[in-house]
Amino acid sequence: MVGGGGDARSRTQAARGRRQKAASLPLDVLVDIAARTDPATFVRCAATCVDMRCRVKEYISLHGPLHLRHGDRFVLPLLRGHLIYRQRDWSMPKEELFLVDTTVPDATKLRMATGGGIPLSSRDGLVLARVGVAKELRVCDPATGRSLTLPSEPAFRWVSRINYVLIVGDHDEGVTPVGRHFHVVMAYLDTSQYRPHLKLRTYSSEHGVWGCYTEIQVPSLQGSRLQGCLNKPLVVGGAVHWFCLTDTGTYVLKLNVRGVKVMVTKLPKSFPHHGRHPKLLATSSMDGNVLLLVADGDKMSAWAQSKHTALWQQRPHVVINMTETILRFLDKVGGSCIPPTKPVQFNLVWLAERSGTVLINACDGFFWLDLQSMEIVRWFSDRRVQYMTENNIPYEMSLTAWVPTFSSTF
């Protein structure tokens, strides 16, 4: 009797296993379902196995651009890390480009990247860099190793500090050597005249040429003295944002690239306008409100602009203590830092727009702050690059071409 009952249970379990195996969905169906979800789910689906990644890439090549729900949300897995450029010897310049890959084990996080040149801008899986002895502008895709050298850029007369912005279009396989159409905007804010002017030239990969020279008056930008040039750009909803400081306050410029129109807003008097406070433009979501982050001692404040009225709030949207935030993270991961009795001094380096994370330089290392949770999510420290705070550019994978491997042919 006992033996018979055991055999019955074995047969029942075997039959249940066969039914479960027969009920599993084919990979093609799973990809089709994932393509109708949100970006984070789609990325997690692609990360499950090699077969799934192949099916995802095949699906994209057949169906073109994805139309995922909640596309305005940040997707943290798209953050790969950042690029660091270093010039070692001033008498005999030797250029070095490092890739800090925060998605791999510690032993391989930092490695040399070849052929990348000086990184100028990075967005949605592509990198704009100045390369070679001729200092040509080149757009490359580090994930595939493909690149496109732009025609000679038109020079602005008597201008040395130009702001470069890379704007990437939807995924369209095969339309350019790097896979997608893009624009490169050269911008310069000229305050030498009575009324400030924003000077522009734009390269379109679709047409393969630089566009006409454009000069836009910015009369609402007041002040007799500009404290520095245009700062690091933020691209939200297809528009480029910069902030700049004058002797009368802090202003944010919004450029509609297609319409070639500029709108200027001034931050309130309660905003810390002093140039000694590092500032960085950010956004609350992929298509959300614009934020201006301010570093003051060991505190970071976020000032929000209304998306509908374009007015800036009179008080910070949020203020966080970076000493507590960084030390809380290091305690959790077992890292070391300066003694907690001293406030952590930090610098705002750059925003990764797809993942919604801010690269911060502090404690002789780099930290990534998630804007949604206001918590540190990744960090990196290495003596070879701990003092290199210039030319740090975030690198994120494109959502539609995301593959959790990295080409060695960068």
UniProtKB/TrEMBL annotation:
Instruction: Report the InterPro entries cross-referenced here.
Output: DUF7595
Q: Name one Pfam family in it.
A: DUF7595
Q: Where is the DUF7595 domain?
A: 119-373
- Superkingdom assignment: Eukaryota
- Report residue spans for region: Disordered: 1-20
Stated name of the protein:
DUF7595 domain-containing protein
Q: Which organism is it from?
A: Triticum turgidum subsp. durum
